[in-house]
Specification:
It contains seven helices and four strands, in the order αααβαββαβαα. The protein is of the alpha+beta class and about 190 residues long. The protein is globular.
Length: about 190
């Protein structure tokens, strides 16, 4: 699978502006794939891509990792506009810490995940520490999972990476919806 990386927030706005001139339907397609606040992949597409990337890692027998980031927006009582600005700032800071091959996704309003291709546990932990330092002001909770040690598919890796929660992924991923979208993607 050819690597297609999520545009960052400022790139997202530029892509949308250019897409209006080229193809009006492209703007709608991009808004279905990308979160408008962060410019990161939406949950459904991130999960499909993550599954495909993990399958490729399995075929080539190479490690790969996922980092989950939870920012306690809801517990701070922030209004939507302020939380959107905070998410934009968070995405901008995280984008600076990421490598070009990494691709981020929004799992939930206050939860993000980053796929780290060709990344073993040690390298992922170094990036996790870098993210932790960059995002310190947000008091994030971070988790990490590496294929194949922590899981054999996207869902297993995300469950391990989000174990900072009492009930991992319970409000974040609708398992039936995930399985339905996965089945559709495999059928194509």
């Amino acid at each position: 699978m050819t690597a297609v990386h999520a545009p960052r927030s400022s790139q997202y706005r530029g892509i949308l502006a250019r897409s209006d001139a080229m193809r009006p339907d492209l703007r709608q397609s991009l808004s279905m794939l990308l979160d408008q606040t962060t410019g990161w992949y939406r949950r459904w597409y991130f999960l499909l891509r993550l599954d495909a990337e993990i399958e490729q890692a399995r075929r080539h027998d190479r490690p790969t990792s996922v980092i989950a980031v939870k920012i306690p927006l809801a517990s701070t009582g922030l209004v939507t506009l302020l939380s959107d600005r905070l998410r934009q700032r968070l995405a901008r800071i995280a984008n600076e810490a990421l490598r070009p091959a990494d691709f981020p996704g929004c799992l939930h309003e206050d939860e993000l995940a980053i796929y780290l291709p060709n990344t073993d546990r040690d390298e992922a932990e170094r990036l996790l520490e870098k993210l932790k330092a960059e995002l310190e002001a947000f008091t994030p909770r971070l988790g990490i999972a590496t294929f194949p040690q922590d899981g054999r598919n996207a869902l297993e890796l995300l469950v391990v990476a989000t174990e900072y929660e009492a009930t991992p992924l319970s409000p974040v991923i609708d398992l039936d919806d995930y399985r339905r979208r996965r089945a559709l993607a495999v059928a194509k």
